[in-house]
Write a structure and sequence with these properties.
The chain has two domains: about 120 residues, no CATH class; about 80 residues, no CATH class. The longest helix is centred in the middle third of the chain and has 22 residues. It is mainly alpha-helical. It contains ten helices and two strands, in the order αββααααααααα. The protein has a two-stranded antiparallel ribbon. It is globular, with a radius of gyration of 18 Å. It holds the Pfam family DUF4202.
């Protein structure tokens, strides 16, 4: 491969990004211009993956980037969710994103086995002998902590924050929670995350990517 040629992963990322750039919903991170919401989410998941588990294989990286691919199609024109059961809507989003990324991968040279792995990861049905599903869970938790937890401090007092975060982060591995604490600057969040780690980490398996 010459220096100008892209890797298969880069090709897939480009297609995912071009697709998610069509999201009509916009999010404006603090101090920056607004960008399509799902495009931003994909970027953030890839960012925390490179920070936390840079040796993760391409299949996890694809699943993370495409986890909510075209999910905006399940919103109403005004950006609000349809008036249906939330779990039903979330299930449809997962099924659609899983199907679309599987189609994209197949059209770009990935075999059925790899497509099935990514499809199951996005659907949340993956067997976790490899640690892939746990890592994807960790990446979602890390994105939540890094980009959204501080906003919760503006809405809730510290004593109410712990149960909210515990509910959101209960699926994370101990390594991921430690990483989140190590990267955090806010003293209230650090204390809260330390408490959560003590409460839930004993029940979680370590992930294999960090060996």
């Amino acid at each position: 491969m010459t220096p100008l040629e892209k890797t298969p992963l880069e090709d897939i990322f480009e297609i995912i990004d071009q697709t998610n750039a069509q999201d009509p919903r916009m999010t404006a991170p603090q101090g920056t211009a607004a960008v399509p919401t799902e495009l931003l989410r994909g970027f953030r998941l890839s960012l925390v993956c490179e920070e936390f588990a840079p040796t993760a294989d391409d299949l996890v990286k694809i699943a993370a980037r495409a986890q909510t691919l075209e999910s905006w199609q399940f919103e109403e024109a005004d950006g609000t969710p349809p008036q249906e059961n939330v779990a039903v809507i979330e299930g449809r989003k997962r099924e659609h994103s899983a199907k679309r990324i599987s189609q994209i991968m197949a059209a770009n040279g990935y075999d059925e086995a790899d497509c099935a792995i990514v499809r199951d990861l996005v659907l949340g049905k993956s067997e976790d002998e490899t640690g892939r599903a746990q890592l994807l869970e960790d990446l979602n938790g890390l994105v939540f902590i890094q980009f959204h937890a501080v906003d919760l401090l503006k809405l809730y007092p510290a004593e109410q924050l712990a149960p909210i975060l515990t509910d959101c982060l209960s699926g994370m591995s101990d390594e991921a929670l430690y990483h989140a604490i190590d990267q955090m600057n806010d003293p209230v969040l650090i204390k809260t995350l330390q408490s959560i780690r003590q409460d839930i980490s004993v029940e979680k398996k370590s992930i294999v990517y960090l060996d």
